[in-house]
Design goal:
Layout (H helix, E strand, L loop, with lengths): L10 H14 L3 H17 L7 H6 L10 H13 L1
Length: about 80
């Protein structure tokens, strides 16, 4: 069953999407459908699942204020001094 979906986009983006669709010999609707189908495939692919050890470690650093710069500073201190 197909239903209608309304998207609100900038005029310039709509023009580019229509131009791209015409070049590819498809419609903007089909491009959007293909995109969402691709996302669904990516979300359910086995490669998205983490290995057991990695999975067991996720979330153990909750409530920490560690920033990327802190890690970079740690590495500099460890390897450059």
């Amino acid at each position: 069953m197909k239903n209608k979906l309304t998207l609100r986009l900038d005029d310039s983006l709509i023009k580019r999407a229509k131009k791209h669709a015409k070049q590819k010999g498809t419609s903007v609707s089909q491009m959007v459908a293909d995109y969402f189908a691709l996302i669904e495939i990516e979300d359910t692919s086995p490669s998205k699942k983490l290995p057991p050890i990695t999975s067991s470690l996720t979330g153990i650093l909750k409530n920490t204020d560690i920033q990327e710069q802190d890690y970079k500073s740690y590495l500099e201190d460890k390897h450059l001094k």
